[in-house]
Amino acid sequence: MATLPVVLNERVLVLNRGYAAIRVISVREAFVLLFRQVAEVIAVNQGRYEVFDIDSWLEIAELQRMYERGDHEWIQCARQHVAAPRIIRIHSTNRQPDFHVKLNRRNLFARDGHRCQYCGDRFATSELSIDHVVPQSRGGVNTWENLVCACVACNSRKGSRKPEQAGMSLVRQPKQPRRSPDRSLRLGRQQYEAWKVFLNEAYWTVELHD
Predict the structure, then answer these.
(1) Spatial CA neighbour of 118 closest among 157, 165, 75, 74
(2) How many CB atoms lie within 10 A of CB 175?
(3) Positive/negative CA dihedral, 43, 46, 47, 50
(4) Domain ranges of the chain
């Protein structure tokens, strides 16, 4: 059985009210939505799909533990073990929960593929820095659109200038990713078999969009 931090980082497919796939999030994020009662669990039982709110999902945990122990990843809570959901469905008629990709060094490096966005070469993490396209000294801020990976040489060459002032150009225009860029899905795993009914072949290789 996987350890708690590992299980909480496993992938959960998010469906909209019409059962269309819209997002991939972590188990941790899924439980937040479930406890906020804006989502429900979609579970597979002998080839049939069943729906559970958070209360009923917690109630059946003991039976799942007895008869489906090997079919789930488990989270140990204060009083019981709870199966990690693999699919949830947003059912609120109000505004959909807002999913934000955290702006941090790991996600920036992953978004840019560990490539310097000025020379285009790939580098080890230790050889990359984060560059402000518009320097902070010129009003540049910490946003997805203004931060890129840069190697030491390019960062030094650019200095506190804008790219065009330094005679440099970006490999691609930086923008905020739609989902966490460091999450690569291992869709061949048994845990994700339940996703297949909601996804066609194109979804295995392309990003999920709203």
Answers:
(1) 157
(2) 10
(3) negative
(4) 4-100+181-204, 105-166
Phi (first) and psi of residue 163, to 5 degrees: -55, -45
| Pair of tokens at residue 56 | 């009923």
Which is higher by pLDDT, 98 or 142?
A: 142
Q: CA dist 197 to 44, 119, 150, Å?
A: 11, 42, 41
Measure the N-to-C terminal CA separation of the chain; round to a whole number of Å.
Answer: 33
Query: Where does 105-166 sit in CATH, by number?
Result: 1.10.30.50
| CA distance linking residue 118 with residue 153, whole number of Å | 10
pLDDT digits (tens, 9 = 90+) for 96-112: 555 567 788 888 888 89
Residue 95's CB is within 10 A of a number of other CB atoms, namely 7
Overall pTM surpassing 0.70 (yes/no): no
- Residue-wise pLDDT for 159-206, tens only, equals 999 999 999 999 999 998 876 655 544 455 665 677 777 765 434 433
Element (H, E) at 24: strand 21-26
Nearest CA among 16, 17, 21 for reference residue 202: 21
Can you tell me the distance from the alpha carbon of 31 to that of 49, in angstroms, rounded to the nearest whole number?
19
